[in-house]
Amino acid sequence: MSPGCPWERPVPPVPPVPPVPEEASPLERGLHAVVGTFYQYAGAPGGGGEPSLDPRAFQGLLRRELGHQLRDTGHPEAVAAVFALLDANGDRRISFAEYWQLVAWLCHVLRHRHYGADAPPGPPLPPDGPPPAAGGLGGEQ
Q1: pLDDT (tens digit, 9 = 90+) per residue, 97-134?
Q2: Closest by alpha carbon to 77, among 3, 126, 140, 133?
Q3: How far is 41 from 36, CA to CA, in rounded Å?
Q4: How far apart are CA 12 and CA 108, in angstroms?
Q5: Does residue 111 lie in a domain region?
Q6: What is the pLDDT of residues 29-44, one digit of tens each?
Q7: Is residue 32 part of a domain?
Q8: What 3-state class would DSSP assign to 139?
Q9: What's the number of domains the chain is made of?
Q10: Residue 71, in any domain of the structure
């Protein structure tokens, strides 16, 4: 990777997520965390439109928020491979709908690991994906 590659730049600080009402249930708090985390890292794309994650913001989200669920979040090649899997429309940004695919997959993995459910479906992330050089982030064992 070249030094100017977006995967190798420092990740900027992230603003706080709006507060959740005290009376919110654990599920409501969790939903707020999933949605709020996306918007905490997302920026408006050039020319307006919905907020989305550019490569740098995506790497920051993975490293800071999912480092215990995914391995290799600090490896630019692995993060780039996951980004490419999620970026369904190829616009080099991760929309909320594309981010949701990652969240859904992680829910399947947690369900499998902690509740004995069947193995999670395939991509976006293989459970013990290829090593970082081949471009994969697998779940933590």
Answers
A1: 999 999 998 898 888 888 888 877 665 543 444 333 33
A2: 133
A3: 9
A4: 30
A5: yes
A6: 999 999 999 999 998 7
A7: yes
A8: strand
A9: 1
A10: yes
